[in-house]
């Protein structure tokens, strides 16, 4: 039974997706407006992922995709070559972009322009844009926009009107009707509600490094009191830097933040092995690491932004989603391990130490990968 519990925990680790890093799949951002009867949409996206044929719903990290080698090769292509590759890909993509006018499908989506960023660091996604347009009926009052799920999540932002629409679409979703004359700006409550699942998704399933850090806190002791001290310190810290980072007051390079986040996983896991209980300095250490995890969360928000007029409620919603994700991880760990074995004399030797050793090993690999490979 003890061996089964240990293996159950480790298998749970291994079945989770790859860590958040420079290869994390991020949503595309589409700015749209009506120009002379044409709906014009400018999309900032990772064109390499599209051309490589990666299903951006099925994977949270391009390194884990079967087409990862093709993707990496595309990232190293000169801008003009990748532009040609995307133009060749476009005829297959266009039919999977959905535009409705007053509930009826609109056909004839045309590629207008493509702009590919310079190569730069091939370990980082480069910013590229493509613009498409489609003619609308002269009497059209509202539109809906979406695309196939394989292209991933989409942030939609309306331009050129009063009280513009600004929303986050899950992969494959179709937007609610958006009035072309404006007036569909999300309320504070709608902004809050829209970004709670975004924050949750950033932990479960996409945030394996944050998951392992929280599990490192859990395995020190499954008791409520020591866990409460640590999670409270972590939550307070990352809330502060998430807010400061999202507001633009604090910016730290991902080349620093990501290796330190991996190092924080190693630290708590190793301390679980060498310490038999909650040391007085542990909450302070966890707080310090929480500050850096918050900057990691802020970097994600910076990639696709928050609605300008609903920034604060969206930020709060994202943070609550993160907290719900963390609580879900703790609850699952408790149900799988703590509730059954937490009070057993052999818990530490048979479960906590082996699980922490596995977490530490993953963390060490990530530190080396992020420092020396820049990923």
UniProtKB/TrEMBL annotation:
Residues 1-22 form the signal peptide. It holds the Pfam family HupE_UreJ_2. The keyword Secreted does not apply. The keyword Membrane applies. The chain crosses the membrane at residues 256-274, 286-306, 312-337, 349-368. Keywords: Membrane, Signal, Transmembrane, Transmembrane helix. It comes from the Bacteria. InterPro entries: Put_HupE_UreJ (IPR032809). This is HupE/UreJ family protein. It comes from Paragemmobacter amnigenus.
């Amino acid at each position: 039974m003890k061996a089964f519990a240990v293996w159950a925990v480790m298998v749970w680790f291994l079945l989770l997706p790859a860590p958040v890093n420079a290869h994390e799949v991020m949503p595309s951002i589409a700015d749209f407006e009506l120009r002379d009867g044409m709906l014009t949409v400018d999309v900032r996206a990772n064109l390499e992922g599209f051309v490589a044929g990666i299903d951006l719903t099925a994977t949270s990290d391009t390194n884990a995709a079967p087409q990862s080698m093709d993707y990496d090769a595309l990232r190293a292509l000169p801008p003009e070559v990748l532009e040609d590759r995307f133009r060749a890909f476009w005829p297959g993509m266009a039919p999977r972009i959905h535009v409705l006018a007053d509930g009826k499908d609109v056909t004839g989506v045309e590629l207008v322009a493509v702009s590919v960023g310079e190569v730069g660091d091939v370990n980082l996604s480069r910013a590229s844009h493509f613009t498409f347009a489609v003619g609308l009926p002269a009497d059209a009052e509202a539109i809906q926009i979406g695309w196939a799920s394989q292209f991933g999540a989409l942030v939609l932002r309306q331009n050129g009107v009063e009280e513009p629409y600004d929303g986050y679409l899950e992969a494959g979703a179709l937007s609610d009707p958006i009035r072309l004359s404006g007036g569909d700006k999300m309320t504070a409550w709608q902004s809050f509600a829209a970004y709670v699942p975004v924050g949750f998704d950033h932990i479960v399933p996409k945030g394996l490094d944050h998951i392992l850090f929280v599990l490192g806190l859990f395995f020190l002791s499954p008791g409520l009191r020591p866990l409460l001290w640590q999670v409270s310190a972590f939550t307070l810290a990352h809330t502060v830097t998430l807010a400061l980072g999202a507001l633009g007051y604090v910016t730290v390079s991902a080349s620093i933040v990501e290796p330190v986040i991996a190092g924080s996983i190693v630290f708590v896991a190793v301390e679980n092995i060498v310490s038999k209980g909650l040391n007085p300095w542990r909450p302070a250490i966890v707080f310090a690491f929480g500050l850096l995890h918050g900057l990691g969360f802020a970097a994600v928000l910076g990639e696709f932004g928050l609605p300008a007029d609903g920034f604060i409620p969206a930020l709060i919603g994202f943070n609550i989603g993160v907290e719900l994700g963390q609580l879900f991880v703790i609850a699952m760990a408790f149900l799988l391990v703590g509730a059954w074995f937490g009070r057993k004399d052999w818990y530490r030797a048979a479960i906590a130490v082996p699980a922490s050793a596995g977490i530490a090993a993953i963390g060490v690999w990530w530190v080396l990968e992020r420092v020396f490979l820049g990923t």
